[in-house]
Design brief:
heterodimer, A: mainly alpha, globular, B: mainly alpha
Chain lengths: 488, 220
């Protein structure tokens, strides 16, 4: 692994993961023609992925005042750039179809591709930010781009969904910014003012001297604010609409990545609180919000009629599980939370890849109008079946393993919490398999025209999830264990 | 820090809370826009005063943005959008004005009670500024959720944002305040343009129906 080509440009890997998407966004905004745009989009995503892999090298730059890399954010960055790349491949075929049927016009496509790269840029920036103010700005930018993308079809429903997303997301970002200001106020007496009092690596060194009461209040605001973006109940209402009405590649990126980025922000602040002896334990709050989201989403899954909306609720459910695991804390639960997050991102984006093509073939997202997919479109249909098995937590897929770890670690420490956790998991499991039965099997219904789909991203993700369920490489295990230790 | 610095800062911050209340009981869109312009101007004075007493010249930029962009450009633009799109000029509320005001008073009491208690060790000036700023933020959020009109929701969002800027300028020496006010302005500009482009009429019930039919047909 050589950083040679990057060195020539005077860039290190950390800057590269920001510069490449930003430059690509500028170029894509100007490039006419869908084919070229889609290819450039894939190329830029691939280059960003390559640059992010260079971050793995052991000699890391010193944490700067604005950007830094540590063992925690590397996991998130690589996951983000990887799914960003596979989604760009899926997006190329998906968008070609949208263009053909006239749902999107070429001007909108240019906008779409540029926004895709801006979104990648802002997510990488949020993850690599060492400054809580910069992190907030990056998450705001990511929110703005996704709002615009959700409304891109300009149908009545899409505009309504984008508007709802805007209203709730701005409540979220307002609360998060207020929390950020409070953290600064808490840091000010101990650290003096200025930029240093917003630098995360400096904050964590000094946090023991901060006023606990102010830190607690700040965390409540941050948890509610960023929690809105994670999609935790009761602030989740934007999420199903945004997933259902936007282009499917955006649903995949939203579920697979943006929710994680918001969760990452919560985790960073949780680490700050954990380092202050007088502050409240953030765990119980996160456990409660996680469990409420899990149970709520699991029951809501039964009543869904729209296939994308259903999987959006499944994302709320899984973000609930992950928040629960991180809220429990400790090496085992954190390890399980990290693993679950990775597996969920891979599986959920795979589901959206297949659902996107299915909705294009059938011309509808209504579950009642889709039947017998395994007969008419075996590759796509079975792909969906496998992906739903994986997301429902069936062995031997990776999610089974992470859920098993979460349940068993909870059982060892708080046996009573296992009951609501298992109820949520089983209810969701039942709902997903019930709906899957209708969609995948039975008498075929609706259009049977052949699929113009790219199966590679779908099956690549499924292979990774299956592989992780069967055998986790010891290197990955020790790395995740190390990160779990950092999370405390 | 002498008494006058303190009192003037409070006067402006308290004034902002008062203007937030005035926005809550407006029932006409044009009147609401005028009050919002007043809100932005009070904010600009408050930020300008902070710039003066903290000796932080970059904050004058934030004050200028507040006056020019939020005090003049945005209200005028929204005024024209209302005219052009023929939006209803009455504000439809989810709950009545009376209960909204009571809720608002509750929020102010809550934010003062919470913030003054937890910021006991923080800088004296920042402390009360932040408490009043949280009131402005909560009143703005209240307005966003109790209004049905897209335009008044945008105004609610902008007043929330004014509250955040008040909090950020009150925290002495906080970096990125200027960048933040720019970022917010960009967001608001996008949204206002979006309102115009997407032709959001009141809660979209009269979105260009022809365009909708065209989409439906091509999707079949």
């Amino acid at each position: 692994m050589s950083a040679f080509p990057l060195d020539l440009l005077g860039l290190d890997a950390l800057n590269a993961i920001l510069v490449i998407p930003a430059a690509a966004a500028a170029v894509l905004a100007l490039v006419p023609g869908y084919r070229l745009g889609a290819r450039l989009n894939v190329l830029a995503a691939l280059l960003t992925l390559a640059a992010s892999l260079l971050l793995l090298s052991p000699d890391r730059p010193e944490p700067g005042r604005y950007l830094f890399v540590d063992d925690l954010n590397v996991v998130f960055i690589i996951l983000t750039t990887f799914i960003g790349f596979t989604t760009s491949v899926f997006s190329a075929t998906y968008i070609a179809h949208e263009l053909k049927i006239g749902r999107l016009t070429p001007q909108y496509l240019r906008f779409y591709h540029a926004m895709y790269q801006v979104l990648m840029f802002s997510m990488n920036l949020a993850l690599a930010a060492n400054n809580i103010g910069l992190m907030w700005v990056a998450i705001e930018l990511a929110t703005l781009t996704t709002i615009l993308m959700v409304g891109i079809y300009r149908t009545h429903e899409a505009v309504e969904a984008a508007w709802k997303y805007f209203i709730l997301a701005s409540v979220g970002i307002a609360l998060a910014l207020f929390g950020t200001i409070l953290i600064y106020l808490a840091a000010q007496p101990a650290m003096g003012g200025g930029v240093d009092a917003m630098v995360w690596t400096l904050l964590i060194d000094q946090v023991a001297r901060f006023d606990p009461a102010l830190l607690n209040t700040a965390f409540i605001f941050l948890l509610l604010g960023y929690g809105t973006k994670v999609g935790l109940a009761p602030l989740h209402a934007w999420l199903p609409d945004a997933h259902a009405e936007g282009p499917t590649p955006i649903s995949a990126v939203l579920s697979g990545l943006l929710l994680n980025v918001a969760l990452y922000a919560v985790l960073r602040f949780k680490m700050l609180l954990a380092a202050n002896a007088g502050a409240l334990a953030p765990g119980p709050l996160m456990v409660t919000m996680g469990l409420v989201s899990l149970l709520f989403a699991a029951f809501m899954l039964y009543r869904r009629r729209d296939i994308k909306r259903m999987f959006a609720y499944s994302s709320i459910e899984h973000m609930g599980i992950i928040t629960f695991a991180f809220g429990m804390g400790g090496p085992l639960a954190n390890f399980a939370g990290l693993l679950h997050m990775t597996m969920h991102s891979l599986t959920k984006s795979a589901i959206f890849y297949s659902v996107g093509h299915i909705a294009q073939i059938k011309g509808t997202q209504k579950i009642a109008d889709i039947r017998g997919l395994t007969e008419t479109h075996p590759v796509l249909g079975w792909g969906l079946v496998l992906a739903v098995f994986a997301i429902a937590g069936m062995p031997p897929f990776g999610i089974f393993m992470s859920e098993f770890l979460i349940v068993s670690s909870t059982f060892a420490r708080e046996p009573l919490l296992v009951i609501p956790l298992l109820v949520g998991l089983l209810v969701a499991f039942g709902a997903l398999l019930l709906r899957l039965g209708n969609v995948a099997f039975g008498e075929p219904l609706g259009s049977t025209k052949p699929a113009e789909a790219s199966y590679v991203p779908l099956y690549a993700h499924l292979a990774l999830v299956l592989g992780a369920g069967l055998y986790l490489p010891p290197m990955l295990v020790s790395w995740f264990q190390h990160v779990a230790g950092l999370l405390g | 820090m002498d008494g006058l610095d303190f009192d003037v800062a409070h006067l402006f911050a308290g004034g902002l809370v008062l203007v937030s209340f005035m926005m809550l009981y407006q029932d006409r869109l044009y009147a609401l826009l005028n009050i919002f312009a007043l809100h932005a101007i009070v904010l600009a004075f408050s930020v300008g005063w902070q710039a003066y007493i903290q000796d932080a010249p970059q904050l004058y930029i934030t004050a200028a943005i507040a006056i020019v962009f939020k005090g003049i450009i945005i209200p005028v633009a929204l005024h024209r959008i209302i005219q052009r799109l023929g939006i209803h000029r009455e504000i439809e509320t989810v709950i009545g004005i009376g209960p909204t005001m009571v809720l608002g008073i509750g929020f102010v009491a809550l934010s003062l009670a919470v913030m003054l208690r937890v910021t006991a060790e923080a800088d004296r000036l920042a402390r009360e500024d932040v408490a009043l700023a949280l009131s402005v933020v909560l009143l703005g959020l209240l307005m966003m959720v109790t209004r049905r009109n897209a335009v008044s929701q945008v105004v609610g969002f902008m007043s929330t944002e004014n509250g955040l800027i008040l909090a950020a300028t009150g925290a002495k020496g906080m970096p990125f305040v200027v960048e933040m006010s720019v970022a917010f302005s960009v967001l608001v500009a996008f949204v206002v343009i979006g309102v115009f482009l997407f032709r959001i009429r009141e809660r979209f019930d009269t979105v260009d129906a022809q365009a909708l039919d065209r989409f439906r047909r091509t999707r079949e």
